[in-house]
Amino acid sequence: MSRFINKIVLIVILSFFVAKKEVVAQMVYPDAGSWNTFNIDYKINKKITGLFTQECRIKENFTRLNLFYTNLGLEYKINDFFKAALVYRFIEKYQDDNSFSFRHRLMLDLTLKKKFEKISLSYRQRIQAEERDIYSSEIGKLPEWYSRNKFAIKYDTEKRYTPYAAIELRYQLRNPREWQSDNTWHRNRYSFGVDYKLNKKSTFGIYYLIQREYNVALPQNQYILGLEYSLSL
Question: Which of 26, 31, 169, 222 is spaced 20 to 30 Å from 191 by Cα?
């Protein structure tokens, strides 16, 4: 058990320092906002679960709409420690001219999870490709590619609430609009929160997330208050 925990901790530390090594001196713009999420998980059978998510994000110190997105996907449980999911996301991102930018994202998630008594550790590798404004941009059909690595730890209190903390590191593989940042780490997320089990099927969650950007043209630090409601059917 201790060897597994040590490996996870070592991966997190090394990933953090690799990301920090890429940081350059830039003016950073702070912002605060909220992410509000509704999830439905529908268990089709013992191995396959249908996934649905609807989220609304607010930015500019809680005063302006940022985006809406909808997720549709399937998750396959390979065994008690490993699962895979394929998810499509439709994004409506609000623009400064009061129009919407329409984006399509495909995500492949591979997740490892292991529980040691009251502590659960997990690692998720996500590969995502996204196209935007397909019919209104000369490069709209050229996808953006990212690799996202998320490490999380949860503590089972054996009560209704479950505290957790997580770190996510995003690596830009290819972006035709921000090609200067290709093959670099350019965004970290740090979060901590609590899930509260309302009943056997529903859970309410609240979390605080800090997002830091670097190696991009206009880096921004975001401070997010998140609210989640999840329903398992």
Answer: 26
Indicate the domain borders of the chain.
2-232
pLDDT at residue 26, rounded to an integer? 58
Upper half-sphere CA count for residue 20 (Cβ side, 13 Å): 6
DSSP state of 197: E
Q: 4: which 2 tokens? A: 């597994």
Handedness of CA 204, 212, 126, 129 (dihedral sign): positive
Using 70 as the pLDDT threshold, list the residues of the chain that sit under it: 1-27, 136-140
Q: What is the CATH number of domain 2-232?
A: 2.40.160.40
pLDDT for 22 equals: 44
Cβ proximity of 52 and 40 under 8 Å: yes
pLDDT tens digit sequence for 32-69: 999 999 999 999 999 999 999 999 999 999 999 999 99
Under DSSP, is residue 220 helix (H, G, I), strand (E, B) or coil?
A: strand
Collapsing DSSP states into helix, strand and coil, what is residue 78?
coil
DSSP track, 8-57: HHHHHHHHHHHHHHT------EEEEEEEEEEEEEEE-SSSEEEEEEEEEE
Partners of 135 in the beta sheet? none
Distance CA 209, CA 201 (A): 25
How far is the C-alpha of 209 from the C-alpha of 228, rounded, in Å? 13
**Predicted TM-score of the model (pTM):** 0.86
Angle value at C-alpha 15, between 35 and 114, nearest 5 degrees: 75
